[in-house]
Prior knowledge:
It is built from five helices and eight strands; from the N terminus they run βββαβααβββαβα. It is an alpha/beta fold. The strands form two sheets. A six-stranded mixed β-sheet has the order 1-2-3-4-5-8. A two-stranded antiparallel ribbon has the order 6-7.
Amino acid sequence: MLRVRKLKVTALGDNLVYEEGHGQSGLSLLLELIDGKNERRKVLFDTGDNREALMHNMKLLKLNLRDVDAVVLSHGHLDHTAATVDVVGAAGGVKVYGHPHTFVRRFIKRRGKRRINVGVPRGQGIAEIERAGGRSCSPPGLPRWFRGSGPRERLRGRRSRL
């Protein structure tokens, strides 16, 4: 693993906003770093839950997405993935890293109510990312059991206590 010599984090999507920025309940961070080889890298960590707010904030901050090296999705919930295709398109096509289960459909259903999508929103899946010029990747170096391939062992008799 390469060392990070310098790191600057800019919040692009958050619920705390200054100036003319637009807030949202989702999260998106721009990570600008200098790696162990003294190479500059830009990584977008998550894409928030509001496309319009994210794109507005990027424009306000005069960010050029053409020099973004990659997008990393922390997990497959809509408050972290709603603008992935827009970002990939604006960047001219980049790799999108996430756990293989990031794009598995997720719903909640309350008694007597319709089920609600809480996963990646429609139109933000792997096929749409690839049509926008991106490439979906699993993070390198993941153990086989983490990537979802091969047999899995379950921990039996263990329950988490919250």
